[in-house]
Amino acid sequence: MKKYITDEKNGLDYTLVNGVYLPNLISTETNYEIGMWGQRHLDYIKHHRKAFYLNLKTSCKLNSYLHDVDVRATEMYDRLVNQLKEQQGITEQLKAENMSAWVQAMNSIATQAREIIYSGVICSKGGV
Q: For position 75, what pLDDT does the model report?
């Protein structure tokens, strides 16, 4: 009998101990810090995609998956803010001349970008 096997159905590795295959339960989960977007997506999948969440959790892929969602959503947010600023003509000159108008415009842009990320990434079936 082989010392180590992998079950193709569930993806788990097993080790032969005293004639019995025992699952390797040592966590291989990474330990990335998860930011705001990853936390929001975690909350979404816990409540709306329970089987997907449990699959990620039991396969030790949850942390790396959430990290990936968080990184991509953050990059997308930054890109959207810059694009919206350019489209709406929000410049450093406006900031210097009329700070309150600039703050109002930037708050509006940030809200737009957050809504796009939330609907397109956070509440999507597979994240990013």
A: 97
List the one residue out of 74, 56, 64, 3 whose CA is nearest residue 32.
Answer: 64
- What gap in Å lies between CA 96 and CA 73, rounded to an integer? 30
- pTM for the whole thing? 0.72
Share of the chain above pLDDT 70, in %: 94
Nearest to 30 by CA among 74, 60, 72: 60
Nearest CA among 23, 27, 26 for reference residue 12: 23
DSSP 8-state class, residue 13: E
Instruction: At 22, list the tokens.
Output: 């025992």
Tokens of residue 94, six digits: 């406006």
Sign, CA torsion 51/8/29/33: negative
